[in-house]
Amino acid sequence: MMTSALLLAAFWMPTPLRLFMNEPSNIWVTGSPYILLPGVLVVAAITGHLLVFRLLARSHSAGSYLS
Q1: 34: Cβ–Cβ under 8 A, 6 or more apart, which residues?
Q2: In angstroms, rounded to a whole number, what is the distance separating the alpha carbons of residues 56 and 3?
Q3: Sign for the pseudo-dihedral over CA of 8, 9, 10, 11
Q4: What does pTM read for this prediction?
Q5: DSSP-assigned states of every residue in 9-65
Q6: What are phi and psi of 51, to 5 degrees?
Q7: pLDDT tens column, 14-40
Q8: Amino acid 26: pLDDT
């Protein structure tokens, strides 16, 4: 689902990849602070989820649970 949202945003931006030609174009994503969404915040969210899943897998395989 997250990938589809990122692809739709990229396809609406005024670049050569733009597929949807209806107006208004999606230029708000290129300004500050919105440029941080795909560049920093999405990467941080994915990293956080991976760390939590890794911790849960370790605790499950060791037989202990988080309290």
Answers
A1: 28
A2: 25
A3: positive
A4: 0.49
A5: HHHHSSSTT----PSSP--GGGSTTTTHIIIIIHHHHHHHHHHHHHHHHHHHHHT--
A6: -65, -40
A7: 777 777 777 776 677 777 887 777 778
A8: 65
